[in-house]
Inverse folding.
């Protein structure tokens, strides 16, 4: 191979290498540039709260991609009724940053085990939020549970990009992106509630036992056809008869003794 | 049982109740006065999930100038894309990527919020006409219309964009059929793509 050919071969090899590198960079660029997305960082998948108490969970939003976004977190439908506020915060996580640089959004939940209609009416009337009668018996606001057993509500917390609504032009679909984290609300019941419940049950049992006993007694007397008073009267009469009989017996004994003495006197004379 | 016996019985029960109560309280009382030293163990496990859409997919899924009675019309990037959603290498520019900060395995699912609906009207183009397919192969990246999946208004947990993964780029395509007699105009819907830890179901 002449030196000219060798030079040409080297140039061609270098050219191939450059093209290869270009394709590699292009393919990398095509995937990693112009990407719009969101990251969610979480360290809790279950939250135990006592009824009528507030519990909160932190969620970190970050943006490892190269496009600026506004983002928020939102609970899925089963968890929504227990959220303490309606519109969670919107954050602006810095682009090309990892979970260490996350923006934290705190979601708080307050479960009301049995929400009475009038209570709901009161709240809604005070804050003038909705038509008071609307959604009164919406089943998602009610939990009926077995005493002593905590209730678990499963749902998802979804982090998503906040973007303006609508599309322009022809037929089409807007695309929303979401990253979900599971969350279970475990709602416990307070001990004083159980004590109250236990007391009520004991009182009911005592009342039932009392009436049951009286009923049984009445049933027995009805069966034998006698009342307590009648029994006592009969007993008194019998006692009196026995007393009279005893007196008669004593009298007779006395007469017999007197007769014996008389006869003995006559015999001696 | 005479009155004396009754009183003794009541007294016995009271003593028993008192002893049981004391037995319950004693450990707490004793614990408070013990000299055991303790330290707190602490472990904080954090999960991170991050996914991104290609700018073409994020701009929307468009279908331009469709004819009546046509099937498998290919989507364009956004509603103004003129040349479909293909790049110079004829590969789709619709893709979803899992960022390398993700440290747990996820499933990726999709749904729409309603059938394509004519703006300002109740007329729809039913969901069975709107289909998608994802390709888990890196390149070439042209998911095929064969065995494409129809959209539904709840997350499709049988057909996933990706299943039990923590990395990768997932290429997508979308198609729309237009039936004979379909009313003219611009129809809209909203597509959602969700990534969720794979031990739980998308959207639940």
């Amino acid at each position: 191979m002449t030196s000219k050919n060798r030079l040409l071969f080297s140039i061609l090899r270098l050219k191939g290498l450059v093209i290869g590198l270009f394709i590699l960079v292009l393919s990398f660029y095509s995937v990693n540039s112009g990407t719009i997305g969101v990251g969610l960082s979480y360290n809790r998948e279950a939250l135990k709260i006592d009824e009528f108490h507030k519990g909160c969970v932190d969620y970190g939003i970050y943006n490892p991609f190269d496009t600026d976004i506004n983002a928020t977190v939102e609970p899925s439908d089963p968890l929504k009724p227990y959220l303490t506020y309606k519109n969670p915060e919107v954050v602006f996580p810095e682009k090309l940053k990892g979970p260490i640089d996350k923006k934290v959004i705190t979601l708080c939940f307050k479960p009301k085990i049995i929400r009475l209609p009038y209570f709901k009416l009161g709240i809604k009337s005070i804050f003038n939020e909705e038509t008071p009668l609307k959604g009164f018996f919406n089943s998602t606001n009610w939990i009926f549970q077995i005493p002593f057993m905590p209730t678990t509500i499963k749902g998802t917390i979804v982090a998503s990009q906040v973007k303006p609504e609508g599309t322009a032009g022809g037929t089409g679909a807007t695309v929303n992106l979401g990253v979900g984290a599971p969350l279970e609300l475990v709602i416990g019941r307070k001990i004083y509630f159980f004590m109250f419940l236990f007391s009520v049950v004991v009182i009911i049992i005592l009342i039932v036992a009392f009436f049951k006993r009286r009923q049984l007694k009445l049933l027995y007397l009805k069966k034998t056809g006698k009342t307590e008073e009648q029994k006592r009267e009969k007993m008194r009469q019998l006692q009196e008869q026995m007393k009279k009989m005893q007196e008669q017996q004593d009298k007779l004994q006395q007469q017999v003794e007197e007769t014996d003495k008389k006869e003995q006197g006559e015999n001696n004379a | 049982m005479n009155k004396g016996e009754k009183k003794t019985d009541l007294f016995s029960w009271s003593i028993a109740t008192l002893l049981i109560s004391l037995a319950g309280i004693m450990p707490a009382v004793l614990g408070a006065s013990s000299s055991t030293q303790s330290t707190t163990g602490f472990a904080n496990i954090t999960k991170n999930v991050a996914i991104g859409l290609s700018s073409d997919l994020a701009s929307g899924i468009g279908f331009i100038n469709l004819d009546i009675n046509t099937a498998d019309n290919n989507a364009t990037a956004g509603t103004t894309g003129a040349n479909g959603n293909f790049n110079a290498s004829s590969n789709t520019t619709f893709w979803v990527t899992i960022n390398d900060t993700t440290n747990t395995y996820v499933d990726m699912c999709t749904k729409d919020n309603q059938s394509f609906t004519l703006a300002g009207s109740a007329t729809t183009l039913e969901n069975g006409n709107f289909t998608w397919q994802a390709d888990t192969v890196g390149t070439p990246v042209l998911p095929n219309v064969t065995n494409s999946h129809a959209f539904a208004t709840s997350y499709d947990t049988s057909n996933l964009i990706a299943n039990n993964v923590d990395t990768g780029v997932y290429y997508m395509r979308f198609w729309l059929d237009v039936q004979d007699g379909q009313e003219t105009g611009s129809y809209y819907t909203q597509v959602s793509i969700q990534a969720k830890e794979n031990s739980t179901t998308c959207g639940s």
